[in-house]
């Protein structure tokens, strides 16, 4: 991965989505930077109307690789050792509060009227007004932000004792973003919004990603002076920078070299583009840890998904959050797995699996559907067009084709033939089917629950079974066929004669 910062001591970036970005404490962070101790809080802005998304869903909750967009920003804060995270909500506030449940420690404040980013930060003053230390101010729509970037932002603020440090980035065409205006000595002077900028200012390529580290009291005192005297009639957070430099306060800029990390999401086009970058990061991390991904472009893996060494993820595969896969597995093509745990050497071909546990050496598919509550013991085989729901199959059991196993327990080594159905529902309630070990359930049997079939029992093919079958017994429930010798030959002779007759007429 390309290095994020221009400074010579740069380290590779690790993402919030990257399990290697282990959380550190604020005190560790200070020791690392060699600066004086100073606790860190963060304010994440997520109260805006998100008009450009054209969505009934609030922007902070739009999903990205398994998490709501703003949760990625919260995670980056936690991984960087931020002690308090305050999210400013406003537009669709209750929905946003209820949707960002990933981190129960997060605090919320409400910005009643959306009067600009400066006004939004002010909404956090009642809870952080007395904070002594650093306050990060972050936009909730920058989900690619890494914990490493935040650590560096905080370190720079601690090392320099600056009143404010802002990240900046370069783009050939930063249309829409605020521009960083520097003075004759090359120091940051102020930020000007696109709508208020002169044509010379619009030509500036250095832009403001809206990610800042403030010394707390400098933030509150400069915010108090912000006025809505601009094209949008809003209280701009960006004005604090100019207000600070005019007073002779220290404002530092930290340039990122990879502008992609600080892309904001304002439209659904940007949402898709940013999600693609995040997916790429997640897959890179897995590949570098020893997982093969045959075609990254057609593979979709959420944050927190774990895959063991030497497993292969084949094309058109979707691994959703909460999935853990062991070593030496082959998953896909065309697998869809959510919130499930798979052991080692598991093979899943063209199947979907939800909320299930598969032990080592299980084989699934093609075209199987494992629904929630499925537990498959070591070496179980589930073949084509088999549906399993809320059932436990012990080691070595086999259901090779065309079956429905619901609310059942199947003992070790039992073979379930093609077309077997557990009739678990009587129209009112669900009932269980319990089958012992090493039993043989012949093809096309219907097992009417509640039902118990003992160890080693044998069910003859085509039998509807409505009574319990003891251990080692055989159950057969079908009519004997009636055999009429010569009947078929006579039938064909009769039919052929009729056909000839019709042709003659
Ligand atoms: C802002 C910056 C701009 C920067 C850009 C980077 C200001 C004035 N401008 O512009 O310099 O280049 O981000 O992406 O800060 N919000 C509230 N309450 C409000 C208004 C906004 O909470 O009253 C929140 C939004 O939900 C969003 C964030 O603040 O998460 C930024 O708001 P947005 O409207 O996206 O600002 P930009 O126009 O992108
Ligand atoms: Mg924005």
Bound molecules: uridine-diphosphate-N-acetylglucosamine, magnesium ion
Oligomer: single chain
Give the overall form: elongated
Approximately how much beta-strand content do the residues carry? 25-35%
Discrete helix count: 11
Number of strand segments: 40
Alpha-carbon Rg, integer: 32 Å
Specify the helix fraction band.
10-25%
Task: For this entry, give a set of tags.
505 residues; alpha/beta; 11 helices; disordered N terminus; binds uridine-diphosphate-N-acetylglucosamine; binds magnesium ion
Descriptive report:
With 505 residues, this protein is of the alpha/beta class. It is 22% helix and 27% strand. The longest helix is centred in the middle third of the chain and has 21 residues, at 268-288. The relative contact order is 0.08. Uridine-diphosphate-N-acetylglucosamine binds at residues 45-48, 88, 90, 111, 114-117, 119-120, 139-141, 177-178, 191, 193, 207-210, 236-238, 264, 266. Uridine-diphosphate-N-acetylglucosamine (UD1) is lined by residues 45-48, 88, 90, 111, 114-117, 119-120, 139-141, 177-178, 191, 193, 207-210, 236-238, 264, 266.
Sequence-ordered SSE layout with sheet pairings:
Blueprint: H1 26-33, E1 40-46, E2 63-64, E3 67-68, H2 69-79, E4 84-89, H3 93-99, E5 107-110, H4 117-122, H5 125-128, E6 134-139, H6 147-160, E7 164-170, E8 178-182, E9 188-192, H7 199-202, E10 206-208, E11 211-215, H8 216-223, H9 239-246, E12 251-255, H10 268-288, E13 292-293, E14 299-301, E15 306-307, E16 312-313, E17 317-319, E18 324-325, E19 330-331, E20 336-338, E21 341-342, E22 347-348, E23 352-354, E24 357-358, E25 363-364, E26 369-370, E27 375-376, E28 381-389, E29 392-393, E30 398-406, E31 408-410, E32 415-416, E33 421-423, E34 433-435, E35 440-441, E36 446-448, E37 451-453, E38 458-459, E39 464-465, E40 474-475, H11 487-504
Parallel strand pairs: 1-4, 1-6, 4-5, 7-12, 13-16, 14-17, 15-18, 16-19, 17-20, 18-21, 19-22, 20-23, 21-24, 22-25, 23-26, 24-27, 25-28, 26-28, 27-29, 28-30, 29-31, 30-32, 31-34, 32-35, 33-36, 34-37, 35-38, 36-39, 38-40
Antiparallel strand pairs: 2-3, 6-11, 7-10, 7-11, 8-9, 8-10
